[in-house]
Structures are given as C-alpha cells and as structure tokens.
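To close the chapter, one final illustration. This time we ask the reader to focus less on the individual chains and more on the assembly as a whole: which components sit near each other, and how the overall shape emerges from the parts.
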Amino acid sequence: MSEAPVIGVVGTAKNTGKTTTLSYLIQHAERRGLRIGITGIGYDGEELDNITFLPKPRLHIPPDTIVTTSEHCLPISTARYDVLERTGMVTSLGEVLILRITKPGLVVVAGPNRKSTLATVVGKMKNVGVDFLLIDGSLNRLAPMAVAEKIIFTTGAARNIDISVLAEEMKTIERAFSFRAHVRELPAFRSIALLGKKMTLNLGIISLLDGDDASMVLEKLTDKTEYLYIPGLVSASALQSLIQRLPNNRPQLILSDPFTLLLSSEPPVLSSVLDLFDKKQLHLFFASKPELTAITINPFYPRSTGTAFAAAFVDKNEMLSQMHSAIHTPVFNVKEESEMLFSLCSPQ
Amino acid sequence: MAKKILCIPLDPVHDVGIKLIRNQLAQHGHETELLSPDLPMEAIVKKAAQGKYDFILVSRTLGYGVAELLARFNDLLDAAGVREVSKIVIGGKPITPELAAELGFDKGFGEHSTIEEVLAYIEGREVSNASIGPKRSKRDIPAGHSYKFYNPVVERLLSEICDKLIAWTSTKTSPGIERAKLREEILASTDEKKRAALEVRYLSLSDDAIRTSKTKNVFPKGVRRVSNTELDALKDFLRRSRPHIPSTIQHNPDQPLIFKFLGSGCPLMDITHGKICERWGVNGFLIINPSWEARYEGLLDGYLTHENDGTITSLDNLRLIRQSLDANTLLTVRAHRGLNTPETVLLAGEAGADLTKIDLVYGSLGAGTDPQRLAVDGVEAIRLAARYNMPFDIPGNDELSGVPAWKTLAGLLVNVMLGVKLGAKPILKPLFCYGPHIVINGQMKQNFVDYNAAKIFALREIIDCPIWPGEPIAFMTQTEERVQSANSTSYHAALAATLGVDAITIASTDEAYSRGPISITSRIDSIRAVTDAFRFMGNAQIAPTRHAEAFTEDLIEQITDVLKEVNAKENLPQAINAGILGSEEDGAYPGKFGAGSMSNEQ
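The assembled structure is written out below.
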C-alpha cells in the first residue's frame, strides 16, 4: 500500500478552472518523477464545453500514469495504454477501466461518479501503486469528493462575477471545513443514531430532510444522548428546526463530512445555520474529514451574447486580494502560482 | 422481473416525454410512480430514499444554470445514500452519454433514443435490433404504374411522333454512341493490348481536352485527381462514422420519396453530405455533372474532383459514391444533356445506380445540345437504360427558361412514349414552381396550389405514369432567407403529398444563393421542414379550388394542340428547332453542341 495523498479538485461551478488546476498538478508531479494516478467524476477533457461550446483544456497525461476512465472515452483519447483491470462498474460511457499509460497523450477522464464507487477505484489505484492521486471533479459536484484527503476548491467569475459574493461564499466553505473529525467509534449501520454511554439508538432513516425528521429525533432524545449521528444528507431547514428546539450545549452532532453541510443549502443560508450552532454552543464533528488545502481562482467567465457565449474576465488582482482578506486558506491564481499549490499537495 | 421506478419531471412544462415513457414502462409490467413537477428537492430526495426504487428517471430541459442544478440533485441523492439502491437516469432532448456523465447520472437518453433502448436498459438486456428506429428500404418507383394511356388522341399523336423519331434515328449514329460501345468493350475486355487499342479509338472520337487529360495528365481548369490520402481519409471517415438511428421523413408509407441533388464538384464532399442526409431520412440523390462535361466529346477517368459546380461522372466517382451510400439509398445519374448521354447511362448502370435522367427536349432547349444529336443519342441512351433496368426521369425544367407549362408537359410526354416503346420505365417530372411564364400570365395569382395541382391532374388524365415533381420543387418561390425557403419547400411538399405523387426533389434552403457549395445545415433545414409538413398533413388533403379543374381542362387541350403541331413536322428535332416545344420568344434556344456530328450507321 502506498501513502499517496488523494487530492480532489472541486469546482464551485463549471468553468472555474478545475481542469487547468489539475493540468498544473500533473505537470509538477511529472517533473518530480512521481507516479500519478487520476480519475474523474465527470466528463472532463473534452475539446468543447458540452453546454457553452467554448473550448476547454484537455488533460495531457504523462507516461506510466494510472488512469481510471470509461471505455467509450478511449477512441477519442490520443495516449496509448495497457488495460490493467476491467472493473465491472458501468457509467453512461461504458465500463470503467483502469489503465496504465504507455505513450503520453490526451485522455478523456470519466470514471465512476458516485461516492461509493469512486472510493472503490481510489482503493484499486492505490493498490496498483501511485505516488500522487488526483480526482477531477465535475461541474459543482460535491458528494463523491468526500473520498479525497486534500481538497482544492476552484472558484471564479463563472460562479459569480461579483467578487465580494465569491469571497463571502468561500468564507462559509472554509467555515464548513473548520470542524474536527470525530474520534469516537461510530455504529456499523448507516442510519441516524442517538449515541450515549453504553447506548445506541437506531432511528431507521439515513437523512434529516424536514421538520418531521427533526421532530422524530427530538422525541427520542433523552438526557443520556451525548451524540446525534447523521450519516446521510441534512437539509438546512431540518437542521434549523432541530437546533432551535435542542437544549444548549448538547447533544454533539456528527455529520458524514463537510460536503453534507455544503449540500444542505447555498452558502448564505448555511452561514446562518452555522451561526445558530455557535449561538447554541453545539459542537459539530465529521465522521470523515478531508482537509481544505487550497483555493484556486479563475477570472474567466462565459458571457452570454444572446445566441452564444463569449469569453470575458473580471479583475484577477482584485479577486485575489478580496479572497486573501476573507479567508485563511491559501488562495492561488493557478496560472501564476502553481508551484506553491503543488508544494501544499505533494507527498513530501 | 418487474422493476420499481420513480419518474420525476423536474421541469414543470416539459413532462410529456417522461409521461410517455412511464406509460410504456407500465405497459411492460413495471411498477411506476410519477411525482408532481413542483416538489422541493428535499421532498424529492425523501421520497426517493423511502421508496427503494430500482430506477429513478428524471426529465429536464437544459437552460442556464440547469447543469449545476442537476449535478446538485445527484449530489443530494448520493449523500442521502439513494444511489446505493437506485440507478439515476436522465432523459431530455439535448442529453448525450457525455452530458449524462458530466452531470453525474448513471445513464442518459436523448432526442434520438428510442423507448426500446430505455426498456432494454431498465430490464438489463441488450437492445432488440428489430425495433431500433425505422428501417431503410428501397422503393421501386414505377412499380404499380401501368403506363396505360387514358387519352386516345394524345396516345395516337405520341405514338406517331415516336415511331417517326425511332425510324429517323435508326439509320444514324454519333461519336457519343460509338464511344458508349467502345466503353462497354473496354470494360468487358481482359486483354491489356486489346483494351489499349480500344482506348486509342475512344480518344480518336474525343475532344482535345479529354485527350490531353488522358495522355498528358493535364486536366480542364479546376479539375484534379483525388489523392490516395483523401481516399483513405474518406474510408476512415466512413468507418468511424457512428452508427445512427435514421430518421424517416415520411409520416406514412404512401407519402412521396425525398430526393436531393449531389454535385458539389467533389465526390468526397458529396458523400459526406449524402451520409448526413441519409441520417435525416433522404431516400435518394441525383448526381449532377459539370456543365462543361456536357460540351466535350468524351468522359474523363479516375477519381476526380472539380473546384466548381457539378461532380464529374467518371466510373470511379460514380462507384465511390454508390458504394459509400447506404445500399437502400436510391441514386440517379444525370445523363441527358450534352454529348455523352449514352455513355453516361452505361456508366451509371455499371456503377450500380438505380435511375438515370434523360430528356431529349430539355437537353436541347435548356442545356445546349443540338436537337438532332440529342435525339440520336437519347434514343440509344433510353435503350441502355432499359437494358440496365434503370427507370429514367424526365425533368420539365424547360419551364424555368420561360416555356409555358403545356409545351413542357407535351415534351415530357414524348419522352414517356419513347421510353415505353423502347422498353424502359419513364418517370414524369413536372415542375412544381412559380415559373416565369406563370409569373407573367398570372395562373398563380390566386394561390400556388391550383396550377401545380392541375399539371398533375392533366398528366394523370392522359396516362398512368409515375410522377416525381421537381426539380427542385418550389423553384422561384424561395428567397435568400432560410426560414422562408424551408417553409416554401415544405408547403410544396405538403401539396405533393396530398396529390399522392411518387417522389419529389427538394432543394437546400441556400440552393439558389449559396455562391458556392451549398451548406449541410441548409440541406437539413429543408429536410426537417418537409418532415414536419408530412407529419402535419398525414393523410389529410389540401383541396384545390374549382380553378384547378378549369386549368386541367385547358392544359389537356393545350398539350394536345402542341402535340398536333409536333406531329405535323417530319421528326422531333425539326419540331424542336421550329420552337413548337418552346420558342426563342419563350426563352428557349435549341442548342448547337454536336451539330452535324451524326453519320449514317455503317
């Protein structure tokens, strides 16, 4: 087993620079002679964006890289490869294959796109032996990226052309990643559970989605409940309804990972939910917690011209400076500072 | 085994598709539930999580921000554990497998997916080929037509005109006929030496330009050989072209076949356009040759491309096009104008074309060939068409020069009778157009329906012969504006369908204004417009007004009068030269190419 760090590149929206960020990481890793593993949860690397029809960068994959992609992506890839394993998993683009690149070239990387299957292929790629494992995100998708250990968020004008909104949003994302991982052993079953000393109560549902779910939790809650464990999805409204009716300071909450918080609502609402946690002095933990390693910014956005999209840009320096003052996480303009970004991700 | 399926219309308006699919799934014994379209995401996720469905089908049209919305939807299902139990499937017009993957779905179905594909996926089986899309089939256009005359006066006149013509031509030959015979011997010969000797004789009957091309490899301006690299690229393109489910233009099998022109100058571009048109349901193509080819004695050999209108009708070019197109696509090769008419028919037959195009009158009046020469060559060409069992179509495009419809139709009928007498299968091609004579004389003042319909009614009262309006339909009603052009084509197609004709030729929407090769998008414009017109009309009828009846009567009378005048002349070429089938005043000029080139047969 290798101790390769698993890096996930997550976008806040399409066209925020996921593929560009990934390309730089590949270049630096190749320069240092690291064996790269790469998979993706979408269909990145196409010549034209599927929706806006603007050109997108494609991933150039160095030799000896381990790539996980779907079978139908192979005819349009220019690299040569050996098939190491046919996984039996299927995406809309065919069976998922694990390849070793024998001759460098352009590859469309489209692997499994849900959390559990992504975790399986990450395990398989680690077993093949890689030094540096990359997961390419897709659009604004979050849930599967909980498999990664280090997260790079890409954001930019394509998400919102108002820089102050982007900075505020990233502040909330940083806040969602600020809670600690939980050390207590969690139940083997995947349901909401009330945990206390020598007691485990299985509530039979996975997610906390509305006021009814919150009421059910509150009904079962006793003085003995130390932890409320929610392994699935939480909605902001259900969380609000629950927290408002909880006593101060207990129980402590354990959620699956920071991404479930980000999925609960858009950042402004999430920010007020997190305020509520503070107000009630409730402690929040995650069952598994990737680290928020860095943020990259992209001033580009596709501006609609009515019948098509054209490339447009916001002020990149202004963007960097507002980000730096809003958050503590390192922020990079990836086209100029990729070296520093890589040093934060590399295994050494 | 029956599957449990949740159908979610994420779109309040466009939920017809998912309801249709739900119906089909239910009919195949699956347990289906349909959510109302206005539920909040959390409620949908809760329902999806509680139901333990095998499949969750989502329909949504794409718009700004919808990709992110759908990606988030998958995230919510993933985080809620639903994706461990259910496969999440998206359906919608713009959905491709790539887009489905990008949005995070397990599977996507788009505009060209069939219900059978959805069922096969749900049931975990292979798609049954029997039900993938419509099958292409080849219709025999003359089948079902008896060539029986209903108008004995017209029949007698035509019979006398054609008997005189056949007798007049029987003692004559031309360099065109001799070359066709030599070509046939060359193709049949396996002896190198003999073939070389035949080639020398062929060249002795050809013009300088053709001789220079063959002996010195110097081609007429704008012509060059297609390179092997280009041929390989074509093969690669054909090999890599994705299999597709072809569309059908016809809404019911009785509606007319749809033909389009190919004649970009480049056989490779023709094939590319042809393959795309096939996918959109076009039934056949007419290969149009360059106008200079008609003026030279002799044809070029090899794979040739030409930087101007018209594709060179060499045997290699014709074979390449024939073999690249679907076996069920009909192919017509234009032969009738110029000095190579019999040989072109021979090559078309050898290349496996389905039809050819011969018109002794239009070839003289509208295309520049001497009437006597074309009469001699045309009779031989029709005999060859009969030998290769290729029906031949007779385009009435003289009308576009300003010739009145009745003169043009009289000319078409002479060709038909000639074909019947020589054992061939002629096809009438009256124009469906706003011809110059009509513009001036006002037959279409009220509408475009009556006079076009009257032409068909008049011909049908005379003979039971296949009718294929052309060429293309809607001529002179189209403008530079693509939408208008597509509309106008579709209205004429609707009228053609209502009249129950056998086929129609349609133009691209930029046919008259492209200032170069026409564009593939413009071709698809008119195909789609006609498909919609056929769907709209179904088996309903357009009712012409009572004027159509009066026009029909007039036309039959006028046609009869013209044929009487033709029959009063010694032979057809004399009648053509005398302007009976179209005069200089009308705008028709008997051609000069090949004048005096005939000789008495040895």
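The radius of gyration of chain A is 21 Å. The first helix of chain A runs from residue 18 to 31. With these observations in hand, you are ready for the problems at the end of the chapter.
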